[in-house]
Design a protein that fits this description.
By secondary structure, the chain is α/β, with parallel strands linked by helices. About 45% of the residues lie in helices and about 20% in strands. The chain contains twelve helices and eleven strands. The longest helix is centred in the last third of the chain and has 30 residues. The structure holds 5'-O-[(R)-(carboxyoxy)(hydroxy)phosphoryl]adenosine and zinc ion (ZN).
């Protein structure tokens, strides 16, 4: 069957057209078209996503992206170009979510095809099996899975006994990791989104440290600036996180040493990335031990971070670790189509009553 999937939970308008086949135990997918319209340039000036603007942009972009998809897949003139529609209904920014839902409902009525609402976080879990192009299958997986979902809006540890039953075992009590990256970047005068910017600076810092390993004096100059940040809740007994204290610690550190020179900016970025990475790894390791997880999935925008990926591979011992294709680690409609298909099969090949589908900003598992 052909699935049209729609994602508007944050600042990306994503639509994909996917051919899906097979049973819930052995599903396979083929990407027919995939488009993403990013709003990064629009939100840059605000240092984060501005919900009212996101809504306006989604409303403007949805018909444009939809027309592009139909054209790319060469099905503009088909009476029934797809058999099922899937749309993200939460979690996310409610005004943004509604735009996708309203658009999906209109198409569902127009083309007389069922509509399935999808949990965005379930999308991030399945995203690790996706590809941007061509065909792919969901392989055999060893359960239980532990997923570390790290994005601009979420930081969660999720335990899954199969691909459709999930339980949150830990989450952030305040800011999400991506949000901490974005806010720290802003304090350092770096543009939005801050994750990739911090990551670039931190990498420069690591290279300086490496290059100077022999030259002790310069290395001392680099590290003597007394730049150290906390590893929040690292030793708390549960699997929850907290990143707002880390952000505040960055603020105080900057206030103490202002005006910052370039070296100090690099040092703060490096220390910040190290603090986040160590905290995430420590909690993930503990959760794997406690729940006997066999597979580790890392999903969400922050999972694109090269250092975090490298350190997870180096420090976590588990049967299998799966990361998404970097382009599918941030928000996209492919993952929403994959989940939608699985949910459609699970629901007995029925859509949801349109009037019952609503945006749920704080949707949980
Ligand atoms: O999953 P995502 O696209 O959107 C949400 O659902 O939030 O995640 C976006 C977040 C932003 O906070 C961005 O700064 C962060 O992912 N991010 C990164 C990197 N690339 C994106 N954080 C750290 N390192 C990166 N390379
Ligand atoms: Zn996301």
């Amino acid at each position: 069957m052909i699935i049209l999937s729609i994602e508007t939970s944050c600042d990306d308008t994503g639509i994909a057209l996917i051919e899906a086949k097979g049973s819930i135990k052995n599903p396979s997918f083929r990407i027919l078209a995939n488009e993403l319209s990013s709003q990064i340039e629009i939100h840059k000036g605000y240092g984060g996503v501005f919900p009212a603007l996101a809504k306006r942009e989604h409303i403007k972009n949805l018909p444009i992206v939809f027309a592009k998809i139909l054209k790319k897949a060469k099905i503009e003139n088909k009476k029934k170009p797809f058999d099922l529609i899937t749309v993200t209904y939460g979690p996310g920014l409610e005004p943004a979510l509604w735009t996708g839902i309203v658009f999906a409902k209109e198409l569902s009525e127009k083309y007389k095809v069922p509509l399935i609402p999808v949990n965005h976080m379930e999308g991030h879990i399945l995203s690790v099996f996706g590809k941007q192009k061509g065909e792919f299958k969901i392989p055999k997986i060893n359960f239980p899975i532990l997923s570390l979902l790290i994005s601009g809006g979420h930081t969660e540890l999720v335990l899954s006994k199969n691909l459709m039953e999930h339980k949150i075992i830990g989450q952030t009590l305040d800011d999400a990791v991506g949000e901490a990256f974005d806010k720290t970047a802003r304090m350092l005068g770096l543009p939005y989104p801050g994750g990739p910017e911090i990551s670039k600076l931190a990498e420069q810092g690591r290279n300086i440290v490496l290059k100077n390993l022999g030259a002790t004096e310069q290395l001392q100059e680099f590290s003597l600036q007394n730049i150290s940040l906390p590893r929040p809740m690292m030793y708390s007994k549960n699997f929850d996180f907290s990143f707002s204290g880390l952000k505040t610690a960055v603020l105080y550190l900057i206030k103490k040493i202002e005006p910052l020179n370039e070296t100090q900016k690099i040092q703060i970025a490096l220390e910040f990335e190290n603090a986040v990475t160590e905290t995430l790894i420590h909690k993930t390791k503990k959760a794997i031990e406690k729940y006997g997880a066999k597979t580790l999935i890392i999903g969400g925008g922050v999972s694109a971070n090269t250092h975090i990926r490298k350190e997870i591979k180096k420090n976590i011992k588990i049967k299998e670790i799966i990361f998404p294709d970097k382009k599918l680690s941030t928000d996209n409609a492919i993952m929403i189509g994959m989940v939608g298909y699985m949910r459609f099969l699970k629901n007995g090949k029925k859509g949801k009553k349109l009037s019952s589908i609503k945006a749920v900003g704080n949707l949980s598992f």
